Amino acid sequence: MIKYNKRIRFLIVGDGPLLNYLKNNIANLGLENYFIFTGFRVDIDNLYSQSYVGPFPCNTHAGMVEAVKYIPLVAGKGQVQKEYVIGGETGFLCEDNIDDYIEKLNHLLYDNNMYDNLKQNSIKLFYSKLCLQNGIDKFINLYKKTYAITPNLPGGTRHFDFGKELIKRRYKVAIFASSFHYSLLKETKEYNKKS
Q1: Which of 119, 125, 160, 192 has the smallest number of Cβ neighbours within 10 A?
Q2: Beta bridge partners of 35
Q3: 51 Cβ contact partners less than 8 Å away, ≥ 6 residues apart
C-alpha cells in the first residue's frame, strides 16, 4: 500500500504478544513513519471515527463490530467476517492474498463515490444488525452464532460491554478470558456493587 500512496498511515492498536515482533519487522523495512502503535486502548470508537478504512487481514473478528459503525472494512472471506462485511455493499471480502487486499483498499482510497456508498451502508448495517442498543436479542444470536463457529477468538472491550448490558437486564454473567485487563476487572467489581 505504501508503494502506491506515501500519505497512508497504519494504526496498530493493542499490546499483544507479537507487538515487538511487528515493530522490529517494520523497523527493519524502514517503514516506521507509516505506522502508529497506540498500545492497549479502550477508546476504540474514537480511533475508528478518525480512520478512513479498516483492513482486517486476519482470521478473527476482533474490532470489526466497532469499526463497522464508522468505516467500510476490507476483510477475509471467513464465516465470521461475513457477519460484518457484505461484499461490495458495506466493504470488501478478499481472497487470502495480499494483491486482492491492495486492489480493494485502493478502490476505497481512490473512488470517493464508492467509498461514500460503502461507508453509509456499513453504518446502516451496524445500526440495523449489530448495535447493542437496537436489539439485545439480535446481538445475543449473532454472538452465539459467531462463537459456535470459532470458539477461540480473542476478546476486547465489546465483550465486557456486552456482559455489562446483560447484567443490567438481570442475566447472570461469568467472564472467562485469557487476557483480561486489570482496569476492566476493577470496573467490573465497581459495576457489580452498583447493580
Answers
A1: 192
A2: 10
A3: 11, 67, 70, 71
Residue closest to 72 by CA, chosen among 35, 105, 103: 105
Are 91 and 114 a contacting pair, CB within 8 Å? no
15-22 contacts at long range (C-beta below 8 A, 24 or more positions apart): 15/39, 15/40, 16/154
Parallel/antiparallel/unpaired status of strands 10-13 and 91-94: unpaired
Rounded to whole angstroms, the Cα distance separating 70 from 130 reads 13
The answer to whether the CB of 190 falls within 8 A of the CB of 49 is no
Global confidence as pTM: 0.62
CA distance 37 to 15: 9
